[in-house]
Amino acid sequence: MDDIIISHHDNFAELRQKIRQGGAEQLHIISDFDRTLTTNFIKGRKSPSLIASLRDGKYLSSEYPAAAQALYDYYAPLEMDLSLDKQTKNSLMAEWYRRHFELLIKSGLDQESLTSSIDNSLANLRPLVPEFLALLKEYNIPLFIFSASGLGVSGLKYFFHKRGLLSENIHFIANDFIWSEAGEAIGVKEPIIHSCNKDESMIADFNLHELIKKRPNVILLGDSLDDASMAESSSLRKILKIAFLNDRIRELLPVYKNRYDAIILNDGNFQLVLDILQDIINQKNN
Asked: 92 lies in a domain?
C-alpha cells in the first residue's frame, strides 16, 4: 500500500463510511478513460493514448502527424499550467480541440481507420479494471466515462466491445463525429468536450440525468487535476475522489492531495477502488 496516499485519513474514512451506508443503489461512478482506466506505462515505456495510436499508425494523411504534434506541443503545456485561471484555460482547451477535430476531418478520418488504430493500440486496462467493471455490471451501478479523447464515443465503445466489456450500465460522455454514409468523418457533434469542461453538467446533454437522480453518492476516478472537477456541478451528495498520479509525482503530489481524497502512484492497479466498491456492495448483503 506504499503507492497509495490518503490525503486526510479521518475525512477519507468518514466519507467512505457514509458512501458505504448508502449501498450500491445510491452509487454511481464517474471516470476518466486514458491513463485512468488504462495504464500510463507498458514495459517501462509511456503508453500512447488512443488518439496517439491513430496519429502514429499512419492511418491519416501524411501531413497529419506533424500538424497534430504541433498542436500538442503548443497547447499541452498550457493544459498543465497551474498559473492559468479556469476561464482562460477553458478557452484555450476549446480552441485546441476544435482545431484538432478540424484537422482529423481534413486528414481523412474514417471509421475503418478508427477501429484499426484501436485494434493495433498498445493501450492496456489497469489490473483489476475488468473485475471492477464486472461488479458494476452485476449490481447495475451506472458508470459514466468522461473522455475528451479525439476518438470519441465510437472509438471508446469499440475499445470496450473488443474486450467483451461493453455493457448497458456503461455510458460515454465524450465527443463524437458525424459520419457520412461511406463512413467518413464530416463533422463533430455538439457540445465539444475537452479536458476543462467534462463534468456532470454534460449528462443533461446526453439525456442520462434520470439515471443518477436517486443515486447521490459518487466515486470519481481521474488522472489529471481537472478530472477532480468532473462532479463539480453536483450538489447534496457524497463524492469520494481517487486519482492516478503517473508523472511529475514530487512536483504535483501536494496539489493532488488538495483535490483528491486518495492518490494511487506509480501506475498502480485498481485494488483500492475494487475494495471500496466491494465494501459498498457488501453493505446491502449484510
From this structure: no
Residue 187 lies in a domain: yes
C-alpha separations of 30 from 80, 173, 185, 210, 238 in Å: 22, 10, 28, 15, 13
HSE (side-chain half, CA atoms, 13 Å) at 207: 0
Q: Are strands 177-179 and 185-188 parallel, antiparallel or unpaired?
A: antiparallel
- Which whole number is the average pLDDT over 59-79? 91
3-state percent breakdown (helix, strand, coil) of the chain, nearest 5: 45, 15, 35
Question: Where in the sequence is the domain holding 11, given as residue range(s)?
Answer: 4-43+123-285
Q: Please check whether residue 153 is in contact with residue 144, taking contact to mean a CB–CB distance below 8 angstroms.
A: no
Task: Name the pTM for this structure.
Answer: 0.88
Q: Considering its fold, how many domains does the chain have in total?
A: 1
Look up residue 221 and give its three cell numbers: 476516478
Average pLDDT, the chain: 88
